[in-house]
Write a structure and sequence with these properties.
With 87 residues, this protein is α+β, with helices and mostly antiparallel strands. Helix content is 41%, strand content 11%.
């Protein structure tokens, strides 16, 4: 039997649950904390949660790591270079 999984996309979360937050450092911290809390709810229900968010501050990621059970927070860094050509 397969596993249930859900992608918790940062943009979608900002349109709903976190619609009242901006992009200042403290708002970003609260956004990531809330995503961590939602990820924990999914995890508690046995659902694999993949949170796709921009989280530039290590301290915010550490808050999420502390919310989830040991071994359930796996951090992946995706680096992409955007090149723009001006004419």
């Amino acid at each position: 039997m397969g596993k249930l999984a859900y992608i918790l996309d940062g943009d979608n979360v900002r349109h709903g649950l976190n619609h009242n937050l901006g992009f200042k450092a403290e708002d970003r911290a609260e956004n990531i904390r809330r995503v961590g809390e939602v990820a924990k709810l999914f995890t508690d229900a046995g659902v694999i949660c993949i949170a796709s968010v921009i989280s530039p501050y290590r301290r915010d990621r550490d808050v999420c790591r502390a919310i989830l059970p040991d071994g359930y927070f796996i951090e992946a860094l995706l680096v992409s270079m955007i090149r723009t050509k001006y004419q």
